[in-house]
Every structure is written in C-alpha cells, then in structure tokens.
Design a protein that fits this description.
This protein is mainly β. Helix content is 9%, strand content 32%. The chain contains two helices and 14 strands, in the order E-E-E-E-E-E-H-H-E-E-E-E-E-E-E-E. It has helices at residues 65-76, 87-93, and strands at 8-10, 16-18, 41-42, 45-47, 53-55, 59-60, 98-103, 121-123, 134-135, 141-144, 148-155, 164-172, 184-193, 199-206. Strands 7, 8, 9, 12 and 13 form a five-stranded antiparallel β-sheet that branches. The longest helix is centred in the middle third of the chain and has 12 residues, at 65-76.
Length: 209
C-alpha cells in the first residue's frame, strides 16, 4: 500500500501533512536528532616511500538507486538471500522483520526516540496471549518507488480474538513477545479490536524524502 492522494500523515512533532500526489510524500523537515539520512564521506592519501602521508579533502559519496535498494531490503530481510533463513537466524542478524502490537502509554514527545519497547502491554499471536510476534514475510513486503518500503500484516480475529485496546506497532529483530529492543515505534489513535474483527496494518518506511 503506497501513499495515495489525500492521505493524511501525522508527524512525530504533531503536524499533519496531506499527500498531494500518489506515491509522493510532501517535503518533511527533519526533527532534531533525526538521523535517518544515509550519507558517506571518503578521502584518500598519497603515502611516500618514507611513510609521510598527504591526505586530500573529504568528499561525499552518492548512494546509487541499486545500493539504496539493497540497504532497504537487507535491513528488513527483504533480499532473496535472506527470505528462507530461519527466524532465529534473522533475529541474530538484527533484521527488523517482527512486529509487536500493543498499547503504549508514552506520548510522542521529545523522549519518544529513547523508548526501547512497548511500555504497557504487548499482544502475541494467539487469543491466550502467545509468545510470538508477527513475522512480516517477504510476500507482504515491497519497495514502492526508489526510497520507500511497504510492509503489511493482517492480525486475524483468531490471532487476537479477545477484545483488546491497541495503539502501537513496534518493529523488532526478535520474534518473541517482550524480548529485544525496538527499532521503531509508531503510535496511532487507540482502537478496541472486537472479538470477531481482523486488524490490517501497513508500515511504510521512507528512507529519504
């Protein structure tokens, strides 16, 4: 699911922007401490036979479209080489393929980036609670354009069949509820999921805007 014209995007600082053109996100100024942009710098130095060194200035690199796609894919285990790897190995690799669903009490304020997990309640993939998080499979991940990654998952009524209040999705590299440190957290308007209702979630990553 890509961004569609008319979609509202609630930003971390409380602002709301509207998508004007399908697949094109409005210009969003980065907040203090937001280090999502990938940049690299290189310099070379000539070394004389006597060991003396003459370093040049630093120069910024350019990440190609292919290179950026590989960074995005490998971060969440989307690359085909990782698609058949066991969950325990994916956890060891630090791939953010596992979703925690639950209730988070902290507001999106200046301390939000320091949160390490859903702080109140996290629900597993079973009506009894369960111990496993949702695994976002390769089939439900796709690149949208050059810089955006979309991931989707449906929590069926049988997975979380008891009525629960949810307002947070957290992304982890560990498949077990309550384990690991969150790579990201996103809160939304609280909603009570009924016993017969499913819950469809889409997580869009923008690695550049």
């Amino acid at each position: 699911m890509s961004f569609n014209k008319g979609d509202k995007i609630h930003l971390h600082d409380g602002r709301i922007v509207t998508v004007r053109r399908k697949g094109v996100v409005p210009k969003i100024h980065r907040a203090p401490g937001d280090n999502s942009r990938i940049r690299g710098f290189i310099r070379a130095a000539i070394v004389e036979m006597d060991g003396s060194e003459h370093p040049a200035d630093w120069h910024e690199n350019i990440v190609t479209e292919y290179g950026h796609g590989m960074i995005v894919r490998n971060y969440v285990g989307l690359a085909s080489s990782a698609s058949s790897v066991a969950a325990t190995v994916l956890s060891d690799l630090g791939l953010a393929r596992f979703w925690g669903l639950g209730y988070h009490t902290q507001a999106q304020s200046s301390n939000f980036s320091t949160q390490s997990a859903i702080d109140s309640t996290e629900y597993g993939l079973a009506s009894t609670g369960g111990v496993s998080r949702a695994t976002v499979s390769v089939g439900s991940q796709r690149l949208s354009g050059t810089w955006s990654l979309s991931q989707s998952f449906q929590y069926e009524s049988s997975r979380i069949s008891h009525a629960v209040t949810v307002n947070c999705i957290a992304q982890y590299h560990n498949s077990s509820v309550g384990a690991g440190t969150a790579h990201s957290l996103a809160t939304f308007a609280s909603s009570t999921k009924g016993t017969t209702q499913a819950l469809n979630c889409t997580y869009n990553w923008l690695f550049s805007t």
